[in-house]
Design goal:
Alpha-Beta Plaits; mainly alpha; 59% helix; three-stranded antiparallel sheet; two-stranded antiparallel sheet; 7 strands
């Protein structure tokens, strides 16, 4: 490790430690003015009375403030629920907004400074660490002892990192009030872009985008000289920075609905929810364009692009989830399970999530067009469970938190409904395939090792069989790491893409349509 890398690593770890410590720092004081600013007008009188013991009291930690708030606020709601007065229950989760608004002292007074010392110093440290990488190595990818790395082979460092990520996502999704000091730091940037104070998701989007940009530079270093990998990495960096981060905030500044224009249903599972549709319809021509653009992408964009270019056009070139997986998650790509059992589990799970999303959306539309008389509250319950199980627990906690444990494409492989939709099209109606030259294969196993989607690429290469799998995201790494040029990503005639080959599993013989 070079001196520059050591300096970068120290900066990164120090910034991460400081950023994490913000959970335990800061002071909080709730006043009537702060409370009035943080809650809806119709709820202010009730909360003013219920939170009276907290007013004008100074708290020395986030935990103390949030604990008292949840105690008083929860007791009020619990009493109403016990009495069956559900119409008076305040269902809004005010813990985050009130906690953030009540912040005072050093953190609240030094937002920009602390943002620089944590998030941006961390990004700088990451850059210093990745820039010297691979400079003395020839082009191409090799094992380079990756199987013996404590970080990259489920060693103690990998377990610690995975645990940290899992805890962070649990707090982010279900206990965001404890992150209020962290979110405060992003206020200056959010105000500059949209004119609004930062939300939890703005701060997360900022960190997410910086992670893709920094680790994208690592990919440039790792795959220097490889045009396909360079362009692919540049593409996901561009779409994340512009379409997912900057443009949506600028739309809000222009008083238009927040919308990531590259996000597609059913990955964007709330697209047809009532409040989203009403926002589109009430925003004039721009809102109508967003609504029609989203529908066109689902109905025409996905099938046509997948027919011509395969799944890779979205999953490896555009998608934000894929962008993080291909950059920040790249060091863990070899951890994906390549077994036939994992493949069977994958197909059941990912298509089950797609069915779940389709049914939920069907219920939502049926309710919307029937004036909410057809299914009543059942639709809301289904939406809540989908948000909890799929959007939060699966896509967030497991999808990213399990990078160091199960590889970088856990969500894409097992849970993403859009990946399932695109995969079905790719499998049965697409020009895309990975061709193989079995006569040149030396069975080194590099292709299978580095396949993030758990495909045993070598099995196909040894037989000279085209690789046509619904799960393949066309990242091209298998072709990149092949020392003999056996593999090639192609878009050609549909005829001859698929062949039936028997697969022996234990003592049984079964024919699986590959």
């Amino acid at each position: 490790m070079t001196y520059i890398q050591k300096t970068g690593l120290v900066l990164l770890l120090a910034a991460l430690a400081f950023f994490t410590s913000l959970v335990f720092l800061g002071q909080f004081r709730l006043t009537e003015a702060v409370l009035k600013e943080a809650v809806k007008p119709e709820h202010y009188p009730v909360l003013q009375e219920e939170l009276a013991p907290m007013l004008d009291k100074t708290y020395s930690s986030t935990f103390a403030f949030v604990g008292d708030f949840n105690g008083y606020f929860g007791a009020y709601n619990d009493q109403l629920k016990m009495e069956g007065q559900y119409e008076q229950v305040i269902w809004d989760d005010y813990a985050f907004s009130v906690t953030k608004a009540a912040s005072i002292g050093f953190v609240a007074d030094n937002k920009l400074l602390l943002l620089l010392l944590t998030v941006f110093v961390g990004a700088l440290g990451g850059l210093l660490f990745v820039l010297p990488l691979y400079r003395h190595e020839p082009e191409g990818v090799k094992h380079n002892g990756i199987m013996f790395s404590s970080l990259k082979s489920r060693g103690w460092i990998g377990v610690v990192l995975g645990t940290y990520l899992i805890l962070f996502y649990i707090i982010l999704y279900w206990f965001p009030a404890y992150l209020s000091n962290m979110v405060l730091l992003a206020d200056p940037i959010s105000l500059a872009l949209s004119g609004n104070l930062a939300s939890t998701w703005f701060m997360y989007g900022l960190i997410y985008t910086l992670a893709i940009l920094v680790m994208g530079i690592r990919m440039f270093r790792k795959h220097r000289g490889n045009k396909y990998q360079t362009l692919r990495t540049a593409s996901v960096m561009f779409f994340q920075l512009s379409f997912a981060f900057l443009i949506p905030e600028i739309l809000v500044l222009l008083n238009k609905p927040w919308q990531d224009l590259k996000n597609i249903w059913p990955l964007d599972y709330t697209f047809f929810f009532e409040y989203r549709v009403e926002n589109f319809l009430s925003s004039g021509a721009v809102g109508m364009f967003m609504l029609m653009w989203g529908i066109i992408l689902v109905v025409l964009g996905v099938p046509l692009m997948t027919y011509f270019y395969g799944k890779r056009w979205y999953c490896s070139w555009v998608c934000g989830c894929g962008g993080l997986a291909e950059t920040a998650g790249d060091p863990f790509r070899h951890l994906s399970d390549k077994s036939l059992k994992a493949w069977n589990v994958e197909r059941i799970m990912v298509h089950s999530v797609l069915v779940f999303a389709v049914v939920m959306t069907g219920m939502t539309l049926a309710n919307y067009f029937s004036g909410f008389e057809m299914l009543g509250g059942a639709t809301g319950v289904v939406q809540q469970w989908y948000g909890f199980l799929i959007s939060a627990a699966f896509a967030g906690v497991i999808g990213v938190g399990f990078y160091p444990l199960m590889g970088n494409r856990v969500w894409c492989r097992y849970g993403c409904p859009l990946a399932a939709y695109i995969g079905i099209v790719q499998r049965f109606k697409s020009r895309f395939r990975i061709t193989t030259n079995g006569g040149q294969c030396i069975s080194c196993g590099n292709c299978s090792t580095y396949c993030e989607m758990g495909i045993d690429v070598r099995w196909y290469a040894q037989r000279g069989q085209n690789i046509v799998r619904a799960s393949c995201v066309g990242c091209g790494i298998c072709a990149t790491v092949c020392p003999r040029g056996v593999l090639k990503l192609e878009n050609g005639p549909e005829q001859g893409r698929i062949t039936d080959i028997p697969i022996l599993t234990g003592n049984d013989s079964a024919t699986i349509w590959q």
